Amino acid sequence: MPLRDHFRPPVSKRSSWQGFHGGWPMTMVQQLVSVLPAGFVAEPRVNLGDFYEIDVCGYEDYSEDEPVINGHGIDNGRVSASVLAAPAPSLTLEAEFAEQYAYEVLIFDMERERQLVAAIEIVSPSNKDRPEHRQLFIAKCFNLLKEGVCVSIVDLVTIKKFNLYAELLTLLRGRDPAYGPTPPPTYAATCRKNVVGDKTTLDTWSFALTVGQPLPQIPIWLAPELHVMLDLESSYEETCRALRIP
What we know:
Elements: H1 11-14, H2 17-33, E1 40-47, E2 102-109, E3 115-122, H3 125-128, H4 131-146, E4 150-155, H5 164-171, E5 187-196, E6 199-208, E7 217-223, E8 226-231, H6 232-242
Parallel strand pairs: 3-4
Antiparallel strand pairs: 1-2, 2-3, 4-5, 5-6, 7-8
Helix pairs in contact: 2-6, 4-5
């Protein structure tokens, strides 16, 4: 079955892109269960940034036998510790710490104490809508690659004409000649850092995605000589079927 355009009619009138993006990671995990070697586990992650407010509470735990100090009382008759005044900042400015939607699948090596070995990042519109958001997404991918994590980027967002894989390559002073001067807005790519002796390279496997055409299989590297293939088409179709997306 072909790739749909989830951001324009008729699909956008039948199903939200948020629903599809939220469901696809778990479907990928269900597919990976059958191909991952023993010792590896895949988990879905969905982070909606500040779309939902989450209360985080901190508590101070005092037992009856412990004194209350730090300016809140006395320590068994002794003078409590004084609270030092905080130094004034040398600069205060208004700043926005942008949070983004994140839809991803993480793969861990359980035999190496749940070391993260691969991340599949599903691009959302918010990852592409502003320069600072694109920079944050690219920085996240760069840092994962730097730590030896295989990174796959899957981008079905047709309404934003940016290619984050191409921008990641630009950060690394490279380009993918297969894409030409105008990289496609929808694509899938797997990237991994490869170290051989004293030489470090970036290996990539990239695929242009086209509405109306099937999705490819992409390699997911778990170790330098170990990979599995993720069939994007089958997990995509299963998610569309579950959500009744025609």
